[in-house]
Amino acid sequence: MFSTGGRFRQLLKKYGKVGLGVHFSVSAASISGLYVAIKNNVDVESLLHKVGMGDVKTSEPSESPQNDPELITDLPSPSPSPPPEKTRNRTAELAASSGGAFALALLCNKALFPIRVPITIALTPPIARFLARRNLIRSV
């Protein structure tokens, strides 16, 4: 059985420009969808984690000395409890801090390459047949 990369190369040899066109179209649709999702504050990191595509691990320092269990203070704790923290949307933070949503969409698109290749492999033969029937390309 061929690996995904080998099947992709074989597909490009057989279909040529049609295969490249399909792959670039799938990539453009992926980048567009990711860009819209990131601009609408969808937490892309948690979605990728749900489908098993990876996890971004960061270590956060303690925000205040009250969070340190080793620190013993004789001061009474403040009576009003602080409001509960909102869940952190790391995607929004990265989009704001690392050059924008488009750059983040490109990085996510790069990570989704193993998903885009099978889509390209599945879509290229029917699209090539359709274009051949319409006499837009030579028969493959």
Automatic annotation (TrEMBL):
GO terms for cellular component: mitochondrion. Pfam families: FAM210A-B_dom. InterPro entries: FAM210A/B-like, FAM210A/B-like_dom. Residues 7-125 form the DUF1279 domain. Residues 54-94 are annotated as: Disordered. This is DUF1279 domain-containing protein. It comes from Spinacia oleracea. The gene is LOC110800177.
